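Title: Comparing notes on inverse folding

I've been comparing how different people in this forum approach sequence design from structure. To keep things fair, I'm posting one structure and asking everyone to reply with a full sequence. Here's the target:
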């Protein structure tokens, strides 16, 4: 079994457990309830849960566990049709987080499309009366109100192929996999994910209550520094942005930028105070939305 493959025990008849479909595990068993903050990671467009497979090891004792979301159409869910709209996708993610009891002591990390989904999922959980994330980490993503002005999902296959190969969108950290056969299998998922992003329209809501940390990259054509800075208005707590060298996929390329990203995550998670159980939060400010 490859390190990229999750460890999953099939049910009688060969079916896979539902928990493993949404949140496949890549190694150690889940921690005991109350062991600390769980970091829930959201993939980028065309990506899979495997990009986060070694994060638990890198983040160490600052986090109780790292759980990566596996969306339909990829990995163990290859036979499922991918979502093409944000609203039902976010509802499905929120349903599963609640069902699996993952909405206690948790934080979110999302890269690119994953950041948008993490934010929307945080809003959806709040609307259901669930506890919010302890911290929201967004990476390589414009602020939500800046989405909806791109049309890559409408490109013909050849054009989408060139776009994907040009930014490394389907490589999951291994650029050697960016060959014609691999891309051909992944193009439908990438197209669906890009449609989720490009059809998305933000609607005004009060900011999330949790602190937020954002990561931008110097040579990112998808999310420029100012567009990442615009996330500041989406939190009623503290906001910190780190600007790193690299392109849109700095988090998958071995090197100093990935190391710094993981180091900053480890530090922020270690500084989170111990969760004191469910609390009722109050709105601390109401921004003047002018976007």
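Reply #1:
Here's my take.
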């Amino acid at each position: 079994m490859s390190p990229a493959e999750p460890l999953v025990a099939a049910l009688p008849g060969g079916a896979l457990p539902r928990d493993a479909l949404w949140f496949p595990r890549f190694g150690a068993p889940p921690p005991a309830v109350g062991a600390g903050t769980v970091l829930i990671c959201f993939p980028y467009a065309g990506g899979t849960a495997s990009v986060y497979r070694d994060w638990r090891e890198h983040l160490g004792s600052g986090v109780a566990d790292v759980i990566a979301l596996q969306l339909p159409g990829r990995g163990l869910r290859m036979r499922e049709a991918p979502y093409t709209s944000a609203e039902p996708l976010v509802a499905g993610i929120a349903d599963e987080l609640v069902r699996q009891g993952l909405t206690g002591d948790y934080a979110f990390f999302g890269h690119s499309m994953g950041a948008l989904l993490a934010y929307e999922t945080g809003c959806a959980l709040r609307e259901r009366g669930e506890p919010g994330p302890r911290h929201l980490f967004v990476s390589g993503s414009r602020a939500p109100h800046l989405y909806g002005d791109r049309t890559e999902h409408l490109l013909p296959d050849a054009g989408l192929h060139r776009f994907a190969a040009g930014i490394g969108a389907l490589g999951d950290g291994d650029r050697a996999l960016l060959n014609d056969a691999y891309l051909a299998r992944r193009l439908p998922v990438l197209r669906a994910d890009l449609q989720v992003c490009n059809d998305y329209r933000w609607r005004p809501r009060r900011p999330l209550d949790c602190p937020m940390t954002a990561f931008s990259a110097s040579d990112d054509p998808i999310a420029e520094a100012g567009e990442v800075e615009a996330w500041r208005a989406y939190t009623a707590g503290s906001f910190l942005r780190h600007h790193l060298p690299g392109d849109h996929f700095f988090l998958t390329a071995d090197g100093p930028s990935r190391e710094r990203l993981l180091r900053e995550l480890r530090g922020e998670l270690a500084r989170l105070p111990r969760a004191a159980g469910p609390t009722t939060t109050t709105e601390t400010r109401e921004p003047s939305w002018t976007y």
